[in-house]
Amino acid sequence: MKSTFQSSPRLREAVSRRSFLAALTGTALSNLPLAAIAAAQKSPNPLRIAALDWGLAATVLSLGIEPVGVPAINFYNRYVVDPVMPVSVVDVGLLFTPNFELLYELAPDLILITPGLMPARASLDRIGPLMVLDIAPRSGDPFKQAKAETLRLARAIDRDATATALLDDTTRVIELGRQKLQHAYDHRPVFLINVIDDRHIRIFGAETLYQDVLQSIGLTNAWQGRSSPLPLGPDALLGVPEARIIVISSVAEQVTGQALIASPFWRALPNVRAGRVHRLEPVLDSGGISSARRFAALLSEALLASEPTHG
Amino acid sequence: MDDVSPLLPRKPAHPSMLVLGLAVAALLLSLFLILRAISVHELWQALVAPDPGNPRHIDLRDATLPRLVLSLLCGTALGLAGAIFQQVLQNPMAEPATLGISPAAYLAVSLASIWVPNLVAGEREVVALLGGVLAMLTVLGLAWRARLSPIAVTLAGLIVGLYCSSFNTALILFEDGPRTLSLWGSGSLDVQDWQAVWWLGPQLIVISLAAVSLRRPLNLLHLGEAGALGLGLSLRRTRLIALGLAVALSVAVVSAVGVMSFIGLAAPALARLAGARTLGQRLFWSATLGAALLWLSDELVKASSILMPPIPTGAASALLGAPLLFWLLPRLRSPIHRSISAVSHRRYPHPSVPLGMMLLLTMLAMAASLALGKGIGGWRWSNGEEFQALAYWRLPRLEAAMAAGAMLAVAGSLLQRLTGNPMASPEVLGVSTGASFGVLAFACVAPSMTLPSLLVAASIGAILSLGLILFLGRRSDFAPDQLLLAGVTLSMAFSGLQSAVLTSGNPRLFGILGWLSGSTYLVQKPMALSACLAAAILIGAAALSRRWLDILPLGSVTARGLGVRLDVSRSAIILVASLLTAVATLIVGPFSFVGLMGPHIVRQWGLRRPLWHLIGSGVFGSLLMVIADWLGRVSLFPNQMPAGLIATLVGGLYLIISLARRSA
Fold it and tell me: Nearest residue of B to residue A196 by CA position?
């Protein structure tokens, strides 16, 4: 499906984008040149945005703009899934080493980066105006911050209405899930885990996007405190035998993870023996609002689907 | 000839005392750790009648106990494999890791995971076996002409192992499968079931029985070919069968728990030290000591994880193993001495001819690197405005890479002259590794990292490691291969440290890892200029020492006779070589091998006088790095390969080939 925002290269040349860029770079070192971008919005050509992070790419897409460049798109397709990345978007290299030359050729009007890419700031500044967005902080209130950063981005690129609609829709999905679960769910706490390899898992705790959504949807996390920074053995799940285990799909699972699920120890876990394990399709914890919405939908669907058997 | 005889102890104690001591320590630690989680009363209940609903019982029965049994099994296998390798190769340093077998098995499984995810244990072992056998054949092939001398075999093994680890690092950077395997690969005994035990146990029993049945013919190996033939034995067949068994043992361990170095080396050494004399004794006590050692190491790792982030058992054992290797080194006999000053009978053109050609080539390569690249539509030759715009990114990394290449090659030239050893280089002697040690240690303690402070840390690391290597070398009067072994050992210990960092999950150290693989990606103008400046100053300083470089390879007596103060001249050269290496390592990482290739190749082209050699090496080193940097930019476009990694993969191959061509 082709977005209406996409322009042909010929049109872009017609408005002499180079001169427009030149006007931008002069102000690039201050914050975001809002006026210049607003001017671009009024021109017949939409913004050419390079989103150098999967969460930022998802955010840009859910604001209705097709980015021109995104790093490691095959990873995006496996981890983020939704919103779907159009095939026309150019892969600009690995996540922490985006290809400067390719970006230069793409000539974006705006480059979105996370704080993780700050070391490359000087090089990226040459290519186009930068905007640093921290939609997935490692601590604090990720969901709240993702909302705020999404709105900030929307304001900068004149998509306020779309952003508000996105946030409203997300709230609606979460509220719907909460209402359904309130009546139909047994209110057991849940573990949110990734399988890392055949012997290790990652457990998500406080100050993650998942946890924030979990709370909004009216559930409690069985894992106390913050996520473990290191891989854990599944014995870490022994602490709360009455909990449900939510396995959020990861690529690692396809390599060795099925061995974990098949192992006697895993099968001996009280939660597993009672059938309290649910698997979710991949969803990225640093994927911003659209991932929060996806997670809320997947989670409530999984818990509701299984409920009758364990009433 | 029995190479291991110097290891016989002065005061023999019985091996059983040693095993008992280790086992008691391990047992106490095990009990302490178990009783932290479960009471004595419950422990009994959990063992006799475990309650499947009680998590603590499951934990004990399906995690703690199998892990303990697995550590005993793996330790036994490694100890036994080490003892067999050492007997067959008559080499006290042979073991699965130093022979390159376990790293190669790991690499094979890693590679397989890209195309065939979800290997089950049996398939994984077949793949690992393939890798292990290939590595063994490569190592034997490389050392064949040197009549499988202990030193030649160990050197080949360590290099093959190092190459496999570097290759694996490259895979981890780009592929999901190998990244998923990195926890397993760094040697983790973490299990939650008895599967690995049931899988490994029977294999171990079968192979051990086979090994014991080979005891008699194996025992005759040290009689030499003639003696054994007199007794009607085919030495070759016995050796091959025994090697095959040891490879199978090592590979079975790798496929179950990843790479565990040190145990296969330490257990046989300790067995001999404790008085195990006959082969039967040595096999038995090596196996038992291996079990006790790995058990104790694993309990120590578990105990340490109460206080700090857990490190993989394999990484811990690699770190513990390095000092032991160093201690064993002087006890190796080196049969081959060769000198760099060997007179060549070939006639070469005037040095300015090859040098001129190299300069021309370098200039062409620079122009091509700046103008030729890939874009959206594929290959593209840029000029005019586009060329200038792209130069903003292309030029600094090119300059920095060239400066680093030149510095490494000049350091290599200095070290080859200093030690009189044509295989010496900052990478092979572990000087680059020392620089990285410095940076990594600094990163662990320092609040923030600035370029000057990193440089100081790298320099201190480089000077200390070169000092250590040369100190060790002096004891064997700079016997070439002793030096190389010491250096490669240092690098191996470092790769253990690196895998501990890789799995530690510390994001700050993760950034360091990107640097360790030698990326020029973030180099900007100021850094490029500083690199060029440092290169100019240090290479100038190196050139000033050309008289010393002419005289030192002639030997200490001649040098003193010619009025050269050995301590002053040596220290000065060590300092300059260390600083050159430190700056270069900060740019392209520790394992580039440019410092080996540069001097090696230009000497073959006839640049033999010190000054010509120095300059030629520098030019050739920068040419190599221009090519590596360019390849890194375009080979996996739009992804970027670190230039240092490309140089490692190309340089490592060159090292292996040149090792093979070294005639005995």
Answer: B180
